[in-house]
């Protein structure tokens, strides 16, 4: 982190234990995303009201290259769990972590897995009683397939010389066909 974390207490005395808890959570975030430039945490305890306890409000401003993530966890009168500052801090940092994960995913160039291009071939050998066969691919490779790799209950229509579309994956004993589909 380029700028040391700033922890501010409002309407309450600074607590070394609460501050240590916040610093520990900031360190965990910094290990997750090492390009955090600054972090400011405000812990506020509003004045005590007649009918409700002290509900802590937490605000976290996190700066990363190209953006800022802000979380404001304001306790409501219905959320009495936030009468405990540690619970309020936990909830705020959990929300911040989720937003930071979304930010990293969006800005990291993370893409979905590329699916293999379906190949075409012809069934050359078939052993229906044993539930397997072989496909001769367009490039001349013979590829094993099992009845369970035939999609949409297509096993019934598989015969020798039937044209099929499939994806090829490497198995323990060589290439085998996956997602085999007869071409009608």
Can you put this structure into words, describing what you see?
The protein has 184 residues and is α+β, with helices and mostly antiparallel strands. It folds into two domains: 102 residues, Double Stranded RNA Binding Domain, CATH 3.30.160.100; 64 residues, OB fold (Dihydrolipoamide Acetyltransferase, E2P) (Beta Barrel). It has two helices and nine strands. α1 packs parallel to α2. The longest helix is centred in the middle third of the chain and has 23 residues. The chain starts with 5 loop residues before the first strand and ends with a strand. The mean pLDDT is 87.
Summarize this structure as a short list of keywords or feature phrases.
alpha+beta; Double Stranded RNA Binding Domain; OB fold (Dihydrolipoamide Acetyltransferase, E2P); 9 strands; 35% strand; elongated
Sheet/helix structural class: alpha+beta
Instruction: Summarize the main sheet.
Output: 5 strands, antiparallel
Q: Give the class-level CATH name of the largest domain.
A: Alpha Beta
Q: What is the C-alpha radius of gyration, as a whole number of Å?
A: 30 Å
């Amino acid at each position: 982190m380029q700028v040391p974390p700033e922890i501010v207490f409002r309407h309450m005395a600074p607590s070394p234990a609460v501050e240590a808890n916040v610093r520990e959570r900031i360190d965990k975030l910094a290990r997750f995303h090492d390009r955090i430039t600054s972090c400011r945490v405000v812990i506020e305890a509003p004045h005590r009201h007649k009918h409700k306890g002290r509900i802590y409000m937490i605000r976290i401003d996190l700066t990363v290259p190209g953006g800022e993530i802000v979380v404001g966890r304001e306790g409501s009168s219905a959320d009495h769990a936030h009468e405990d500052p540690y619970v309020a801090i936990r909830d705020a940092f959990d929300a911040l972590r989720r937003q930071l994960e979304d930010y990293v995913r969006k800005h990291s160039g993370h893409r979905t897995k590329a699916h293999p291009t379906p190949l075409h071939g012809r069934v050359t050998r078939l052993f229906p009683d044993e539930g397997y066969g072989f496909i001769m691919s367009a490039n001349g490779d013979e590829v094993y397939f099992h009845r369970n790799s035939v999609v949409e209950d297509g096993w019934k229509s598989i015969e020798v010389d039937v044209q099929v579309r499939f994806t090829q994956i490497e198995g323990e004993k060589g290439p085998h066909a996956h997602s085999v589909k007869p071409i009608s």
